[in-house]
Write a structure and sequence with these properties.
- This protein has helices at 16-24, 76-88, 107-120, 132-140, 147-150, 153-174, 182-196, 203-212, 244-251, 284-292, 311-321, 360-365, 391-404, 426-430, and strands at residues 3-8, 29-32, 41-45, 48-52, 65-68, 73-74, 96-99, 103-104, 200-201, 217-220, 258-266, 269-271, 305-307, 309-310, 325-329, 339-348, 351-353, 367-374, 407-412, 420-422.
- It is an alpha/beta fold and 432 residues long.
- The protein folds into 2 domains: 3-94 and 202-431, Adenylosuccinate Synthetase, Chain A, domain 3 (Alpha-Beta Complex); 103-199, Adenylosuccinate Synthetase, subunit A, domain 2 (Orthogonal Bundle).
- It has a 10-stranded mixed sheet, sandwiched between helices. Strands 14, 16, 17 and 18 form a 4-stranded mixed sheet that branches.
- Helix 3 packs across helix 4 and helix 6 (153-174) crosses helix 7 (182-196).
- The longest helix has 22 residues, at 153-174.
- The structure holds 6-O-phosphoryl inosine monophosphate and magnesium ion.
- Magnesium ion binds next to loops.
Length: 432
């Protein structure tokens, strides 16, 4: 049975964790393929809130295997803390599998992430300072250290020494910092190696075997399409590929095995960190959405910037991901507004622009052209089916489907697992 990819259609924080967890109840395996603990995925089940950053949300189901794929950058300290946290909450983590090819986030990556942000000053990216960018830099510079390397103490020591020599030059000569000690880092990471060893495997083999055996496999995206290093609002992006193409690279599964790409979006837009945001609201409407939607970063606690849905972005996300379906989250948060808006194009000096531009200077000059929709006052948090929704909500969802050119498979009317309205059975769709 071909697999389902869940991707963010906006700037991250679209509710991929909730959607992945919802779909994981029938999955045999949930796989993360990119990013690292910059992600913050919240799952609310029976009033209990689980927050995961690196472990796939499928871990909450005893029958589901969770895989951290080769494309993920792994901070072993954070991963082990998360395993401990989940165990303390009574979650069985024994079915977690970690790719031997995943790259490690090292202490100098975290340090350099912060130093680089500070050096950029006003031009900072607003990263999560988790070392994600520097870890991918080293991966591409062919200096990275992988999980398989960590399992080989002698080789690992040499790699740490080689890296520390280079990083200490940078830390001391460029940033005026104290040097790091290779032996301290080596000792620290050897401690992690022993604890991680039972989880390590060739995950491409495992995921492909699962798909070939007819298991239901779900890929849980992190970040969002507009944060993609190639397709996002560069340079205000993350350093990986959150789009559907990143799934195959980050898992070692061919594109022919993915039949269904679910784009997750909120009924509005949020962005945490710097960078362009054409439909951003700087008024009481935006503030109200932030409060009602509890729009504060799961990873960093930062207040998120809020705006309307940007249809230009949504069409673009549909194209670069090949979306087959969408999931619309946080619809309940919009209740009580007189008018709800969707940007359907941009205006540039009187010209109508339909395609998302490459250059941020152009983007900054574009004014969203909005379509207005009547709001709704009814609380929809107990809606069980699409037909329970007020006509104004239905009209709004239908326009989002039109813009995306994809049917809504799931709607979300609250944070709880149960506040999810299934419309399409994605596993049936995948079963072709
Ligand atoms: P989830 O999976 C929202 C943003 C950061 C910053 C930019 C680069 O919860 O949707 P990085 O630390 O990745 O180098 O930061 O990307 N960012 C996210 N924004 N949700 C996320 O993940 C994000 N992960 C990174 O705020 O703007
Ligand atoms: Mg998040």
């Amino acid at each position: 049975m071909p697999a389902i990819a869940v991707v963010g259609a906006q700037f991250g924080d679209e509710g991929k964790g909730k959607v992945s967890h919802y779909l994981a109840q029938r999955a045999h395996m949930v796989v993360r393929t990119q990013g690292g603990n910059n992600a913050g995925h919240t799952v609310v089940v029976g009033g209990r809130i689980f927050r995961v950053h690196i472990v796939p949300s499928g871990v909450l189901y005893p029958n589901c295997r969770s895989v951290i794929g080769n494309g993920v950058v792994v901070d072993p300290a954070v991963l082990l803390q998360e395993i401990d946290y989940l165990r303390s909450e009574g979650v069985d983590t024994s079915r977690l599998i970690l790719s031997d090819r995943a790259h490690l986030i090292m202490p100098y990556h975290r340090l350099l992430d912060g130093l680089d942000e500070d050096r950029r000053g006003l031009r900072r990216i607003g990263t999560t300072r988790r070392g994600i960018g520097p870890a991918y830099m080293d991966k591409n510079a062919r200096l990275g250290i992988r999980v398989a390397d960590l399992m080989d103490p002698e080789g690992f020591r040499e790699q740490v020494e080689e890296n520390i020599a280079i990083k200490n030059d940078l830390l001391q000569k460029v940033y005026g910092q104290e040097p790091l000690s290779a032996s301290e880092i080596y000792e620290e990471y050897m401690g992690y190696a022993d604890r991680l060893r039972p989880f390590v495997a060739d995950t491409s083999r495992i995921v492909n075997d699962a798909i070939d055996a007819g298991e239901r496999v779900l890929f849980e995206g992190a970040q969002g399409s507009l944060l993609d290093v190639d397709h996002g609002t560069y340079p205000y992006v993350t350093s990986s590929h959150p789009i559907a193409g990143g799934v195959t690279i980050g898992s070692g599964v061919g594109p022919t095995k993915i039949s269904t790409v679910l784009g997750v979006l909120k009924a509005y837009t949020s962005r945490v960190g710097d960078g362009p945001f054409p439909t951003e609201l700087h008024d009481a409407v935006g503030d109200g959405i932030r409060e009602r939607g509890k729009e504060y970063g799961t990873t960093t606690g930062r207040p998120r910037r809020i705006g309307w849905v940007d249809g230009v972005m949504l069409r673009y996300a549909a194209r670069i991901n090949g979306l087959t379906h969408i999931a619309v989250n946080s619809i309940d948060v919009l209740a009580g507004l007189d008018t709800v808006k969707i940007a359907v194009a941009y205006d540039l000096d009187g010209r109508r622009i339909e395609d998302f531009p490459a250059h941020l200077r152009d983007l900054a000059r574009m004014k969203p052209i909005y379509e207005d929709f009547p709001g709704w006052d009814e609380s929809i948090t107990t809606a069980q089916s699409r037909t329970d929704l007020p006509p104004a909500v239905e009209r709004y969802i239908r326009r989002l489907e039109e813009i995306a050119g994809a049917k809504a498979a799931l709607l979300s009317v609250g944070r709880e697992h149960g506040q999810t309205i299934p419309i399409e059975d994605l596993y049936e769709h995948a079963n072709v």
